[in-house]
Design goal:
With 71 residues, this protein is α+β, with helices and mostly antiparallel strands. 17% of the residues lie in helices and 20% in strands. Strand 1 and strand 2 form a beta hairpin. 0% of the residues are buried. The model has no long low-confidence stretch (mean pLDDT 77).
Amino acid sequence: MNTVTGTAFHRIRVRTIAAIELDVAIATTVLDQPPTRGDIVSGTFFLTGRLGLQPTDPAETSLKRRRWFRR
């Protein structure tokens, strides 16, 4: 259940052909029951994500830029 809108969805984990695993949300209006393990799922999906990279320190970044342009 989406806590903001109150709409229900199925959350499933899929493995792509390239062996990448993704979490997918499927509206309950599109699919009554979630697929079972081993089912093949196809469709058009909107992909969002996070790389998990830590933001760099702004002071460190500005020092690197200054050093790059100074000789």
